[in-house]
Amino acid sequence: MRAVRGMRDILPKDRGIWRVAEKAAADVARRFGYEEIVTPVIEAAELIERVGEDTDAVAKELYRFEDRGGRKLALRPEATAGVVRAYFEGHLNQLPQPARLFLIGPMFRYNRPQKGRYRQFFQLDVEAIGGESPALDAEVIEIAATWLREIGLGDLRMDLNSIGDAKCRPAYLDLLRAYYRPLKDQLHGDCQRRLESNPLLLLDCKVPQCQPFKVDAPRITDHLCEECAAAWTAVRRLLDAAGIEYRHDPYLVRGLDYYTRTVFEFYPANRDGSQDALGGGGRYDGLAEAEGWPATPGVGFASGLDRVTEMMKETGAEVIAAPLAEVLVLADAGLEVAAAEVARICRTAISVAVDYEPKSLRAKMRSANKLGSRWVVLLSASEAGRRVAQLKNMASGEQAEVAWDDLPARLA
Ligand code: HAM
Predict the structure, then answer these.
(1) How would residue 326 be classed by pLDDT, with cut points 50, 70 and 90?
(2) 19, 167, 205, 226: least CB-packed within 10 angstroms?
(3) 132-174 per-position pLDDT tens digit
(4) Can you give the pLDDT at residue 257?
(5) Are residues 333 and 274 in the same domain?
(6) d(Cα 141, Cα 390) in Å, to the nearest integer?
(7) How far is the CA of 96 from the centre of ligand 1 (A)?
(8) Mean pLDDT to the nearest integer, 216-220
(9) Is 375 a domain residue?
(10) How far apart are the first and last CA of the chain?
(11) 388 with 335, same domain?
C-alpha cells in the first residue's frame, strides 16, 4: 500500500525546515497583529463553488464528494472562502475591524502532480477582513515580504496589478472582448471559450500561440474608476514607503474569481512561470456578498509551504536541525525504571530520550552519535543504587559522575 497519488509524507528529517517556516510565519503574523484561526478542511461544496465557478481550482480541480448523509461537500482548495465564512459565523464582524487572521493548514486540488505541485499541499494564509484601506493591501504584502526575508528567501520578485471592481471592470471587459474578438481564430481552445465568459483570463494565458496579442490589449490600469485608481496609487505609495520592490504586471489577473482591485504574486527572483509562484493574493471586496453575507471588504494572500520549504532547502537557508533529544539516557538491561526516572528528572530542563534497545553499550553509543545528542547519561546498576550517573559531553568527550538531582542544573 502506498500514499495516494499527489499526496506525500513529510518525514521527520524534513519537518525541521517546515517548523522553521511555520514558526517564522506565526511570529511575523503576530508581530503585525494577526491571530491564528483554524477552519475545517471540509466545507459545503456550495461555499467553494459559489465563489469560484470559473476557476480551475474549483471547476476542474475540486475534491468534491457526498458524505453518508448525502451532504455535498468539498475538500477546501484554498482557505479564503472558509475564513470569510468563519468570520461571520464566529461573529468576528462584531469586533473592532478589521479582523486580522492567519491560518496554516492543508489544501487540496486535483491537479497534475509535479515538483512543487501536490494534491494535498500546505498554505500559510493571511487575511484582513472588514477594512477597505489600501494600507491593508500593503500590510499583507509587507507580512509576506517580511516572512520570506526572515526565512532566507528575501530575493523575490513581486508582481502587482489592479483589476478594478464591479464598477469599472465590466466596461473594461467589454473593451477587452472587442479587442480579442477579431483575433478569436488565432487563440487556443480554452481562450476562445473564455473570450466571452471570462476574458480577463486571456491575459493570464501561458500558451505560446496566444502571447503575441497581449502587448496591444487594453490595460485595465488605464481604465480604472476614480476610487480604484486612487487605491492603486495609494497601494504603490505605501509599498514604496515600506521599501518593498514590485513590478507592475498589467497581465496579472490571478486564478480565482473573487478578486477586486489589488492583486499580487511573488516569485523567487530569476524565475518565471506560474507554477513557481511562492504565493499570491489580493483584495476580495465582493467575496462576502457572493457567500450570502453582508458586503464586507477583505484582502489577503496565501503562500505554498511545500514550495517555500523546497526553496529553503535549495538556497541552503540556514536551518539548525536541533537533535530530537539533547540528552540520551543509556542504561544496562533491567534498569528501565531507573532510566525512566533519570529522564524524568532531566526533562525538567532539556529534551531527553531513553535508549531501551536490548543492545551493547557500544552499540548504544553509536546510536547516540548518529542521533546527534549533545549529552549522554550512562547508568549502571551500582551507580543507580547511589542515585548517581556518568554524564558525558559528546562534543568534548569529557565524562564525570553526577548525582541524578544535579543533572538538570548541569544540562541547562
Ligand atoms: P493561490 O494563488 O491559488 O491563492 O495559491 C496560493 C499559493 O499556494 C500559490 O502561490 C502556491 O505557492 C501554493 N499552491 C497552490 N496550488 C498548489 C499546489 N497544487 N501544490 C503546492 N502549492 C500550491 C489562493 O489560494 C488564495 N486563497 C490566496 C488569497 C488569500 N487571496 C486572498 N487571500
Answers:
(1) confident
(2) 226
(3) 999 999 999 999 999 999 999 988 899 999 999 999 999 999 9
(4) 75
(5) no
(6) 53
(7) 28
(8) 95
(9) yes
(10) 44
(11) yes
The amino acid occupying position 283 is: R
User: What CA–CA distance (Å, rounded) separates 111 from 60?
Assistant: 8
Tell whether 381 is covered by a domain.
yes
> What range defines the domain where residue 32 resides?
12-168+224-314
Mean pLDDT of 180-203: 92
pLDDT > 70? residue 182: yes
Same domain assignment for residues 308 and 395: no
Do residues 205 and 191 touch, judged by C-beta distance below 8 A?
A: yes
Find cell 507580512 and name the residue.
143
Answer yes or no: do 356 and 307 share one domain: no
Same domain membership, residue 303 and residue 335: no
Q: To test ligand 1's pocket by mutation, which of 123, 141, 263, 275 has the most ligand atoms within 8 angstroms of CB? A: 123
- d(CA 326, CA 336) in angstroms, rounded, equals 19
Q: How many domains does the chain have?
A: 2
Ligand 1 pocket (Cβ < 6 Å) reads: 57, 78-80, 109, 111, 116-118, 121, 123, 125, 127, 255-256, 277-282, 284, 300-304, 306-307
Answer whether residue 321 shows pLDDT above 70: no
Kind of pairing, strands 327-331 and 352-355?
parallel
Q: Whose CA is nearest to atom 33 of ligand 1?
A: 300
